[in-house]
């Protein structure tokens, strides 16, 4: 007969076989499983208890230790900091502080620790966009080596790396894991399904533009739809006030950089074909050689950051922001703009992170929900620009991931590693995903719970269950120093967004600034054989006449607009 761990532990205490403190830990674990998890786990109750007991035993050597970790502020991490950190401390006896700060601040803290060698935080949830940085500098612990060596005694036997969907993003070219995914979300197209399927809207659009209103496949169709809905009288659907055909943000802020490095340029068609990132030119416009050593960013060195396709990408974003977005959008940041579509006045948004799904289904989202709680909106693949071609990256996927720096003392890194595994464990992950909707495990995505919840999530579950999911990826290996290079994007493109410079002028300055960093890294030699080896400059025509990126300017950047039925698209995903 199987006896539950709860019964076994209680019996052991009664017989004096284990001490009181161990029982107190298990008592906290039981309360956590009863009150917080409450059956929302892919594991059986017996398996949950066994997993909690492993954490208690593994943490015994660190009881009473004070450790601190940090992540950006999104719904998933708020749940970790406010709920899971407290539970972990009560269950393990490790005093855990989980700080929440802006994403740019996380990168700054990480950079400070890497440069100084002083321990700032015991673990970081930082984007897998830094994989090129961690692989080259070798200042982050190689988790493959860690789990089989120094950290073996604190690596859970039920971690099940094969169940994680994002480890390919956090793996170096040698096949070793450098970061453990904690939350993951994609950059997709968002639209008002109810508006797009309304008979009057469909008839009026077809009459004006000559083709069917639907999910835009290319930027030409997106622009037509943005124009159609901006200022449209939607009173026939009970919508009052001014409506807009586009939503975006444009404030000169670190988040403006993500707007572009998070695959906007590859969506336009700036880079080369290849998955998960364009090769040899990626979505940052950085060219690498066959050894992944950066060789240039400007067109004169074979890069594409200031290429015609890049100018097209920035020009279109500014044009749509000015013509088809709420006037306040230009002064907004990423976090300020994200919840705006839930207010009910936005028809579509090409650059929309699924991390905001929670805002679309929770309190305050009544304007975009039906009475039964199902959404009036849907999500779909983002359309691509005129320079895009088959085989190119189609979108961005964020994978905020646990990173242990070598400058963190081993005992502190071990304690933090326990917390990283706790918040990503199978016991916890289904409940955490239900709160934050940022999936990291196959078992969670394919659970009965999310089969039941899928109709209320506007295509999110269908997307993550589809093979198409793998075509969205974070920044790849071409970027050798994310902290140094990322800050250049918002500073320079911000000049174009504000009108201080033309898009061409801003991108010329950006690529030159990137090359300045690359040249400093080359001279310093701090990345060894993995660091930059810059190409000699040549006339731009040399590179523009070659196949692939950088691409010469198109005579006509306005493609024939094309749309597709959303319902047919979903069927293709399900098949």
Q: Ends: how far apart?
A: 43 Å
* Rg, Cα atoms, Å: 25 Å
Binned, the helix content reads 40-55%
State the fourth-level CATH superfamily of one domain.
Periplasmic binding protein-like II
Topology:
Blueprint lengths: L4 H10 L5 H18 L7 H14 L7 E7 L2 H18 L2 E7 L1 H14 L6 E5 L3 H7 L5 H6 L31 E13 H4 L2 H11 L5 E2 L2 H11 L24 H8 L2 H5 L18 E2 L5 E3 L11 H17 L9 H4 L10 E6 L3 H5 L15 E4 L16 E7 L6 H14 L2 H11 L5 H4 L2 H6 L6 H6 L16 H17 L4 H22 L15 H5 L18 E2 L1 H9 L1
Helix pairs in contact: 1-2, 2-3, 2-4, 4-17, 11-21, 21-22
What would you note in describing this structure?
With 575 residues, this protein is an alpha+beta fold. Among the domains are: 241 residues, 3-Layer(aba) Sandwich (D-Maltodextrin-Binding Protein, domain 2); 125 residues, no CATH class. It contains 24 helices and eleven strands. The strands form three sheets. Strands 1, 2, 3, 4, 8, 9 and 10 form a seven-stranded mixed beta sheet that branches. Helix 4 runs antiparallel to helix 17. The protein starts with a helix and ends with a helix. 52% of the residues are buried. The N terminus is likely disordered.
Descriptive tags:
disordered N terminus, 11 strands, 575 residues, two-stranded antiparallel sheet, globular, alpha+beta
Short description:
It is built from 24 helices and eleven strands.
């Amino acid at each position: 007969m199987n006896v539950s761990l709860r019964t076994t532990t209680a019996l052991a205490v009664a017989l004096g076989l284990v001490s009181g403190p161990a029982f107190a830990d298990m008592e906290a674990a039981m309360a956590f499983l009863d009150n917080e998890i409450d059956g929302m786990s892919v594991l059986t109750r017996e398996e949950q208890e066994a997993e909690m007991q492993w954490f208690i035993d593994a943490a015994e050597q660190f009881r009473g230790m004070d450790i601190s970790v940090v992540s950006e502020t999104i719904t998933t991490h708020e749940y970790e900091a406010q709920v899971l950190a407290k539970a972990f401390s009560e269950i393990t006896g490790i005093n855990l502080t989980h700080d929440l700060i802006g994403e740019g601040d996380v990168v700054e803290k990480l950079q400070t620790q890497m440069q100084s060698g002083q321990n700032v935080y015991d673990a970081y949830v930082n984007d897998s966009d830094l994989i090129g940085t961690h692989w080259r500098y070798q200042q982050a612990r190689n988790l493959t080596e860690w789990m089989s060596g120094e950290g073996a005694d604190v690596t859970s036997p039920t971690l099940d790396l094969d169940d994680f969907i994002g480890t390919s993003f956090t793996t170096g070219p040698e096949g070793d894991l450098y970061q453990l995914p904690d939350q993951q979300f994609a950059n997709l197209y968002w639209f008002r399904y109810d508006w797009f399927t309304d008979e009057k809207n469909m008839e009026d659009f077809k009459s004006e533009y000559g083709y069917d209103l639907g999910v835009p496949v290319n930027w030409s169709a997106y622009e037509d739809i943005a124009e159609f809905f901006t200022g449209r009288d939607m009173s026939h659907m009970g919508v009052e006030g001014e409506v807009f055909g586009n939503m975006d943000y444009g404030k000169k802020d670190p988040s403006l950089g993500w707007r572009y490095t998070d695959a906007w340029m590859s969506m336009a068609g700036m880079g080369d074909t290849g998955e998960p990132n364009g090769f040899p030119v990626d979505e940052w416009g950085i060219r690498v050689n066959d050894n992944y050593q950066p060789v240039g960013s400007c067109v004169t060195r074979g890069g594409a950051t200031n290429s015609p396709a890049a100018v097209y990408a920035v020009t279109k974003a500014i044009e749509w922001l000015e013509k088809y977005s709420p006037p306040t959008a230009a002064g907004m940041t990423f976090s300020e703009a994200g919840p705006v579509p839930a207010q009910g006045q936005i028809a579509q948004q090409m650059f929309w992170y699924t991390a905001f799904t929670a805002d679309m289904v929770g309190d305050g989202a009544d304007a975009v929900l039906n009475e039964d709680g199902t959404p009036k909106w849907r999500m779909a693949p983002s359309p691509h620009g005129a320079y895009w071609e088959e085989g190119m990256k189609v979108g961005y996927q964020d994978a905020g991931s646990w990173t242990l720096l070598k400058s963190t003392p081993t005992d502190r890194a071990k304690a933090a590693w326990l917390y990283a595994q706790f918040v990503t464990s199978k016991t916890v992950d289904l409940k955490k995903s239900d709160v934050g909707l940022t999936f990291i495990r196959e078992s969670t995505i394919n659970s009965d719970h999310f089969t039941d919840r899928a109709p209320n999530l506007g295509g999110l579950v269908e997307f993550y269950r589809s093979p198409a999911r793998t075509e969205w990826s974070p920044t790849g290996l071409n970027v050798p120093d994310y902290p140094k290079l990322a800050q250049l994007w918002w500073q320079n493109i911000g000049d174009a967004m504000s009108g201080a410079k033309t898009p061409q002028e801003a991108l010329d300055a950006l690529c030159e600034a990137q090359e300045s960093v690359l040249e400093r890294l080359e001279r310093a030699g701090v990345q060894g054989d993995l660091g930059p080896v810059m190409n000699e400059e040549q006339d731009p025509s040399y590179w523009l006449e070659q196949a692939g990126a950088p691409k010469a300017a198109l005579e006509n950047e306005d493609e024939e607009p094309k749309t597709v039925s959303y319902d047919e698209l979903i069927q293709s995903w399900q098949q």
